[in-house]
Amino acid sequence: MNEFLKSIKDYFLSGGVDLVRGITIILAGFMIIRLFIRFLKRNLYKKKNVDKTLPNFIISLVNIALIFILVIYALVLLGVTPDSIVTIFSVFSLGVSLALQDTITSLANGIIIIVTKPFVEGEYVSFSGTEGTVVSISMFNTVLKTFDGMMVTIPNSTITSENVKNYSRLPTRRIDILVPVGYGTDIGLLHKVIDEVLATQTKILSEPAPQLVLKDYGDSNLNYSLRAWVPTEVFWDIYFALTESILLALRKADISIDYNQYDVHIKDDSREEIIVAKEDEHE
Description:
The chain is α+β, with helices and mostly antiparallel strands. Helices cover 53% and strands 18% of the residues.
């Protein structure tokens, strides 16, 4: 027992001190890095209404770089030679590159997103079968908040390989509402009713002017399309208001909103089968 305690004492008197010092430096370094990152965020986000995409990306890179430097410094303090560090780092990098190929690809694509800016934080976009408001863009993935309040994380490699629809980038958007009416509808009256509905929406742009055009001939109706340009920020408000107002106005004007109808005729062949059966009996 005495020899065991003596060996522990000798270890701490020799290499143990370096180990404790290395652990202490790592813990203190992590605290300093956290404080520095917090300071960096506070200064980069000082200005309001500024795109936070690039600052977020820079903060992520700085955080990883500082942690890497801290680990290297701790290894040097523990007595690891520079040649050993290079060897360890090479083996580690090879293993990481093989195991995290998709992650590294996402990192490269994250840089592409930051540089080309197909979207920024706060914009409403659609890709990978999901649409929502961009909450954050990190080095490896992008987070969306969907219309129904879910947070969806999508790898950057997936985003850059697909088409991206950005609904917020341009100041105006066009509303398209399908208006199916019967073939016997008074077209002049239809245009008059739609014009009256449009007049109630003051935020609809006059240039380009709204249009009600015949889109196609349906099986049992005429498919008209109402097209109107509005400011992007009020797109859905006006879309929903127009949809309901048109329905109420057409009903009030006694204009039928038709839908496809199919007439099914069932033929009763039971009597014919009985007659044929009786003829066979006589034979």
